[in-house]
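Hi P.,

Sorry for the delay on this. The queue was packed all week, but I finally got your sequence through. Input first:
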Amino acid sequence: MQTASSAYPFDRPVVLVAAPRSGSTLLFETLSRSTDFWTIGGESHGVFESIRQFNPQLGTSDSNALSAADATPEIVSQIRSSFFNQLRNSQGARYRGRPGPVNAAPRFLEKTPKNALRISLLNEVFPDALFVYLYRNPRENISSMIDAWQSGRFVTYRNLPGRSTPWSLLLPPGWQQHRDSSVARIAAFQWKAANTAILQELLKLGQDRWTTVSYGQQVHAPAETVRRLCEFCDVSADGILASLSAGGLKPSRYTLTLPQPEKWRKNASALREVLPDVADTVQFIRKTTQGLPEEEFDLGIDASLIDADSAAGAEYRASETDAVHRNARCHCGSGKRFKHCHGDPRQSGARQ
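Then the structure:
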């Protein structure tokens, strides 16, 4: 086990990597209940984008992609210190050391969707990190991303060069080619970029440093999934399992509408147009990962389902009023209401 030091104050951080809207917040909130984990309480947009050159609106970077080449000693030290100084447990108590060996290093759990494009940098910052790759069927995942774009609650950049409208969710390299694309086309591009980047980098690491889990597994078999992931991460599952027994899985803080089977059908028309764009990526994931259920790779959309698009969409949209959105707590974790945070047009979105 590593011991805490000014040079490296962590012990095997666990980084969750996934495309946006794949259920990573649910997984993060579930795993953070382990008594062994410490987090910064939310996503790490501020940690990275407070570094000027890493902020696409302020510096030299034109996307969220960061690599090992960006990991200068000064940058590595700054990122480690920023994370360490914000550590807290599931009750919100700040890290002040813990029982055990003198100066025992904390187990740190991190989750931010933009990290899908930063794995090689993170590997330099945390050379003993473990990675958990969360995969969600693109039919469901891209539909949820479309909803996120349309909600206006997930704006990350309000002013990008050559784009007249705000950008939501992560910003992959090559986004400029989609300045005028439909929301569905952009969401498919983001899903493909995130999942491709994740696997390309994880395959460079030892097999003992990463594992996979699907959205369906965490929703339909939460206890079994928790035990497996906690064994991989080498942390206690007791606190999580007790929580699951008491109240089961609860919607994550960023949930737009309550989970429902086949909710993606409301976007069936748009999905039918863009799913062929990601078919090769789905096959790549299928061939290079293990343990994911076969049904997670199903891309089929029956033409008869298209007729349900407008009716289902109207039903969901009717339940998502502007008043609810604007008065809800902001998705970024600031604690402010959305209308006073990312919903305020005077604010520039820096969180996802």
